Every structure is written in C-alpha cells, then in structure tokens.
C-alpha cells in the first residue's frame, strides 16, 4: 500500500481558496487521498447544515447570510483534526475568515484564466453569482475585484490552467515541503 505524504504538523489544515472553477473541489479530494487526510468542502458542509443548496441560500436568505454561514463553518472546521478544505470562492474576502484559516493551517490559492473558468463552469447551474452573467468579461471583472484578497491570503499560489489534477497536487506537495523547510 502506498503511504500518504504527511505534513509534519498533521493537526493543521490545508485550505484551498480561489475563484470558482479553479479546481478546488477536485484537487481537495485527490490531495486528501495522497496525504491520507479528510477532504472537506465548505459549500457542501453549508448545504448540509442549512438544509438548502447554495443557490437556495442566496435566493431565500441573501449573500450576507451565506457569508456568515461560511465564517461559522470555518470556526467549526478549525476545531477538527487536520484536513484538506475546499473553500467557496468568496471565503477569502472576509478578514475574519482569513484570520481563522491562517491560525488553523496553510492557505493555497488556485488560479486560472477567466477563459478557463468560463469553460469549466459554463454548464453549471449551481453558481449564484454567475446567474445571468455567465460570460468571460463578467468573470474577469469579478476575479479582478477579488484578486487583492486572494493574494493577501495565499501562502502558496498554484496556477491550474492546462494542468491535470495529479500535476496540481504534486505541485502543491512540493510547495508545502519547501514551505515547511523554511519554518
């Protein structure tokens, strides 16, 4: 059996942040297998806790309510044993969320071009912020607004354009090793 790669401090989390469609969910699952850690998806956890899908939360309760649920979920996750956490695309926009993630582990920003994101999400109807705005120009505009928060949060930045999941995971592991070597 292939032994997973463990971080020295396995009670720390690895938070994957970035714009929707950068591969956070898929990468978290594969990275979790490779590192023998649980993979947690904040959006899935929010849907489970609230009993509503993300689009339903946005529709019925609004974005502010959803953002409060994200913070609540981060507080809960920070009490768990180390895991790989796939975060919703807007989670890094709130300073309180960044503080929670920085205390609980390392933050990895996954990036992709607006064109790549459009191709990846164009058939996905579960993206409330893209409802009636599913085009490259809008995606690019929203990405530019979020970029300063993403950059502020990131311990590591990984570009995902034209890379498969395994390559992205290997790149993350290499960067984590280098980061651990400097601490």
Automatic annotation (TrEMBL):
Q: Which cofactor does it need?
A: Mg(2+)
What does the cofactor field's note say? Answer: Binds 1 Mg(2+) ion per subunit.
Instruction: Identify the metabolic or biological route this protein is part of.
Output: Metabolic intermediate biosynthesis; chorismate biosynthesis; chorismate from D-erythrose 4-phosphate and phosphoenolpyruvate: step 5/7
The entry's substrate-binding residues are 43, 67, 89, 146
Q: Top enzyme class of this protein?
A: transferase
Domain of life of the native organism: Bacteria
| Cross-referenced InterPro entries | P-loop_NTPase, Shikimate/glucono_kinase, Shikimate_kinase/TSH1
Write down any Gene Ontology CC term.
Answer: cytosol
Gene3D superfamilies linked? P-loop containing nucleotide triphosphate hydrolases
Q: What keywords is this UniProt entry annotated with?
A: Amino-acid biosynthesis, Aromatic amino acid biosynthesis, ATP-binding, Cytoplasm, Kinase, Magnesium, Metal-binding, Nucleotide-binding, Transferase
Q: Localized where?
A: Cytoplasm
A biological-process GO annotation = amino acid biosynthetic process
Q: What is its EC number?
A: 2.7.1.71
Q: What the protein does? A: Catalyzes the specific phosphorylation of the 3-hydroxyl group of shikimic acid using ATP as a cosubstrate.
Please give the family membership noted in the entry.
Answer: Belongs to the shikimate kinase family.
User: Quaternary structure?
Assistant: Monomer.
Q: Per its UniProt record, what PANTHER family does this chain match? A: SHIKIMATE KINASE, SHIKIMATE KINASE 1, CHLOROPLASTIC
What is the official name of this protein in its record?
Shikimate kinase
Primary gene name: aroK
């Amino acid at each position: 059996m292939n032994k997973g790669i463990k971080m020295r401090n396995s009670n720390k989390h690895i938070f994957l942040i970035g714009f929707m469609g950068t591969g956070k969910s898929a990468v978290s699952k594969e990275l979790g297998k490779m590192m023998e850690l649980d993979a947690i998806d904040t959006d899935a956890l929010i849907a489970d806790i609230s009993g509503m899908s993300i689009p339903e939360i946005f529709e019925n309760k609004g974005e502010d309510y959803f953002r409060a649920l994200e913070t609540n979920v981060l507080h809960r996750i920070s009490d768990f044993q180390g895991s790989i956490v796939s975060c919703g695309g807007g989670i890094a926009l709130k300073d309180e969320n960044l503080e929670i993630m920085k205390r609980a582990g390392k933050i990895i920003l996954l990036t992709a071009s607006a064109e790549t994101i459009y191709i990846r999400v164009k058939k996905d109807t579960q993206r409330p912020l893209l409802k009636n705005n599913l085009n490259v120009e809008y995606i690019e505009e929203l990405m530019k607004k979020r970029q300063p928060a993403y950059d502020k949060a990131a311990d590591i930045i990984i570009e995902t354009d034209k890379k498969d999941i395994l390559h992205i995971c290997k790149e993350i592991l290499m960067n984590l090793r280098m980061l651990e070597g400097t601490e």
